[in-house]
Amino acid sequence: MSKAVLDVGNCGPDHGAISRLLEANFHVEVVQTHGLQDTLDALRNRAFDLVLINRIMDGDGSEGLDIIKRIKADAELASVPVMMITNYSEHQDAAVDVGAEQGFGKSDLGDPATLNKLSSLLGE
Predict the structure, then answer these.
(1) Residue 73 has pLDDT above 80, yes or no
(2) For 29-56, what is each residue's pLDDT tens digit?
(3) Angle value at C-alpha 25, between 19 and 26, nearest 5 degrees
(4) I want to staple 49 with a disulfide (CB 3.0 to 4.6 A). Which of 3, 21, 107, 110 is the partner?
(5) pTM score, two decimals?
(6) What is the DSSP string of 48-95?
(7) Domain-by-domain residue ranges, the chain?
(8) d(CA 18, CA 22)
């Protein structure tokens, strides 16, 4: 059975790299959103196994942390696993502090540790 991943706020090339990594290593479908409202709409209309949120939204420059806070504050969505995508440890820590799983940076896409993190949520 295929799993679904929501990729939030990444530009086209980064979305492509993330999608290729996920699709090459897991049986997943990757869906893309760009900001708060389309992300909340997607989460309310479909079950996702993981949400990956960029630190800064490519479209409007808003903070990914704000989207994580909104997801985790919503009783219907709070149980959905969320990871922040950022190379900065202080932003990873801030995301974990509000309920996200430990995420990874774009510079870590080829790192086996990244696949281990993802495998805990997307493995068969």
Answers:
(1) yes
(2) 999 999 999 999 999 999 999 999 999 9
(3) 85
(4) 3
(5) 0.97
(6) -SEEEEESB-TTT--BHHHHHHHHHHSTTTTTS-EEEE-S-HHHHHHH
(7) 3-122
(8) 6
